[in-house]
Write the structure tokens for this entry.
Amino acid sequence: MTQAPLHAPLLHDRLLIIDFGSQVTQLIARRLRELHVYCEIHPYNKIDEAFLAAFAPKAVIFSGGPASVYWEGAPMPPKGVFDLGVPILGICYGQQVMMHVLGGHVEGGHGTAEFGKAYVTAGAKLPLLEGWFAAGDEQVWMSHGDHVSKIAPGFEVYGTSPNAPFAITADVSRHFYAVQFHPEVHHTPKGARLYENFVKLAGFKGDWTMGAYREEAIRKIREQVGDAKVICGLSGGVDSSVAAVLIHEAIGSQLTCVFVDHGLLRLGEAEQVLKMFRDTYNIPLIHADESAMFLGALEGVSDPEVKRKTIGRLFIDVFQKHAHEVGGAKFLAQGTLYPDVIESVSFSGGPSVTIKSHHNVGGLPEKMGLKLVEPLRELFKDEVRALGRELGLPEAFIRRHPFPGPGLAIRCPGEITTEKLDILRKADAVYIDQIRKHGLYDEIWQAFAAILPMKTVGVMGDGRTYDFALALRAVTSVDGMTADYYPFSHDFLGETATRIINEVKGINRVFYDCTSKPPGTIELE
Ligand code: XMP
């Protein structure tokens, strides 16, 4: 069952996060990366002693999780982890399992649960809590059914909350720390400080910087690729662009990018991408303008799934055709990110492991006999942005909102026509311009317009109009998995609707979409 560490750069200190299935395990990694600490998340049931020896962590964190320690087959820490002689921090279930294994006791049942905000009262001083309790009790976020009822030998209590008498515990001599709350979430305001104290105690140097990452990634790409040719599908999004620029820096003209223009891009988008890659970076780039073919195939199609499948299939055909022009390419580069490769612990039907399959050009590498180059596999989205800055990509480009592969097709419910696409492009550009003018672009995770499959009656000047209605969408989100609508002011919405109707021929009515996700999705289709 041993799983090779993903990266484990020997030049850096490494922290191992053992995942017991918490919803917020990824947040632990983010907090640590913010502290410039290299860490990896691995499921508890994929770690054995050989793995621990190969990974050689300088510290370990046990995540929370939905199980109870007294369930049959409950997730347990890997053998040997307490003998590594490194600091360990247990969070929520991580605390309970630590106490359970080391000789304490955990209880469930009535009156032990605590969900949401709670306040922890200080006990004795502890270096892990440096900066805490200066102004009294500290707010923390709890989410537990069970709680520790007897701490393990060697541990002392350093903080209590109404329903968790052992909210903060530690065996200082062994550097084992265990807390009942979740320091990684936003609602534990001093949580980041706790992680900072923990990595300081463990002796991390904070040497995980984008400058260091860039150097290492370049060396690794050169090693992997040798003198072979690499092709990279460029979407104009941040991930594939950063991957392309990084690989180009490593292997120069051995890299060719293929930019498939399906005719469903935003106003001026193709020109911007081409200009940046050709003029600024001088990266060999095939501009596959296949808009006529895509739009032809989509004619009369209104079912969202058929649209997506048609675009996906054609995309692969076109990419494959142009990749052959490069001749003899052995590698395909992709901007896969760390959240896409983290294996998550699933509790439906035992400790099975689910891996998200996400490849943008799914199945293509095998079909074409290509190996993958994925230089962003260790990074979170915000780190990709930091790397993009390190590589000198323009700030405006780095901060761009995500744009889906099927493009405007899924923002044009019903049949897609060139007339509707033209109107949509113009209206979307006005909407984004409004958002930028009001300084809101960076507060919003994603914003776009969608042209609705209906016409409505209006009056402009003294004449009647019968034009399309437009929906505006803007959401806040962390990862696109859940989202809330952005609370624009009424003034902003009114001004934007007026501008769009005045400036874009073909629209006479504008709606704002106030649906969160769930129950809605971000895109309309
Ligand atoms: P939904 O609509 O599922 O979207 O809430 C979540 C995020 O994913 C983007 N999205 C896609 N991205 N290919 C992509 O590359 C797709 O087929 C696709 N569909 C949705 C969407 O823009 C949002 O950011």
